[in-house]
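Async update (no meeting this week)

Hi team, since we skipped the sync, here's where things stand on the single-chain job. The sequence we agreed to prioritize is pasted below, unchanged from the tracker. I ran it this morning and attached the output directly underneath so nobody has to dig for it. Comments welcome in thread, and please keep replies under the output.
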Amino acid sequence: MKKYILLAIGIFCLMFPCIYAQDNFDEFRKQSEQDFDTFKTKTEQEFRDFRAKTNAEFAEFMSRSWEEFRAFQGIPAPKSPDPVKQPEVEPDKKTTADPLPFAKVTPLPIPEPRPQPIVPIRIPPIPTPVTPELEPVKSDFSFLFFNTDCNVSLDNTLRFSLRDASEKSVSQTWKTLSGNQYDAMISDCLSLRNQLNLSDLGYMLLLKTLSEKFLNKESNEAVLLQMFILTQSGYKVRIARIGNQLALLIPFRETIYEYSYTNIGGVKYYIMNKDLQGQAFHVYNHEFPKEQYFSWQTRQPKLTEKLTVPKTLTSKRHPEINVMVQTNQNLIDFYNNYPLSSQWDLYTSAGLSETAKQTLYPALKSVIADKSKPEAAGMLLNFHQTAFEYMTDGQQFGYERPFFPDENFFYPYNDCEDRSILYALLIKELLGLDVVLLNYPGHLATAVHFLENVTGDYLIIDGKKFVICDPTYIGASIGMAMPDYKNVSANVIKLQ
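Output:
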């Protein structure tokens, strides 16, 4: 009995420090939480004070006379004189060509004209919002963004109207928008940007859809609301008055085509309303803290799926490659709202949608599974050459229009840049090989770096051999360049 009493006393002595320590830990945790709440409250208040001061100063400058600027006509999209008829290998030349290095390989020149202050970067950071993140609140206003349900915290009491497009009227309305009653809406917009995986342009389209649904389509109120949310979201944006209408001016890191623009401090600001192109206008030109340029570069937005009509594609040389591909109609409509760019690598970097991958990749992988990399690349090459119907952009659309990869599975025809962009993507993702785009005068092709010794036409890039693979040259094997381009220098576009 004595033994059990001593054991109980021993256990208590061992537990007492733990109990005491636990009490101390609970007290410490409680105090830490209180300290954090105090710090958070103080930080949020300081942030709100900073934002209120910034918006007040912004509104004050907005009330002064806006500067007059000249509008320049939009830069025409580059004309690509693709051959009207797709070139085909002559029957007696269906063998790999002899090795023939090109006369000259030059790096891709920077597109001109280009805003000088902008430093080109591959993946721009997402702008930091000026509005504090808020706890989730009940969202009251619903709208559709390319058939995708969206909700933000807005109600009828937050609707507003401008008396006119004067500096004074815009300034007074900006003060109203700067009140805390719109903070929850901005926080919801930022959350939607992340949830839908939107690019800078995608976010701008989202805000345009929201503002025109909440207010009136292309109204001055809608334009001002878009500008307000964009500035609070960390973007560099200006507003202009053209007659009695307001318009957004957006500076991009890249050159875009067919949109009028003005030059402010050496930077191009594009007028995003095409109905107001080519007119003189007055601009409110004042910086917002830490504002960042827009990037044209896109990502795969997460939109509600609406399947397109299946498109059946079959390789003539390898009929075992027979696929039925579908994509998302909402994604196609989204891409249809994108400005044009001639930076082909940006189209490749957009990638394929999961919808298209699910119908395309399994079928292709099963066919090339037991093939060598050169053999698989050759099969995919013929698939691109013969499964698609060829037509120039001028014939199909009346203007030059590069495709995002998914668009090849929606429109009835494609041309050289469309095929090269898609082929480069499949070589990277299915074979894991390095590939570059080759920009000739009036033509786009690809070249692939194989680990095996592959004969044929090639280039040396950074000490590596890249073999020509032309998705438009019907019947050409890997290593066969079009005769007209065998000794023509190519601008090399490297892909990440």
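Quick observations from my side:
Residues 2-62 form the longest helix (61 residues).
Residues 48 and 180 are 9 Å apart (CA to CA).
Reply here if anything looks off.
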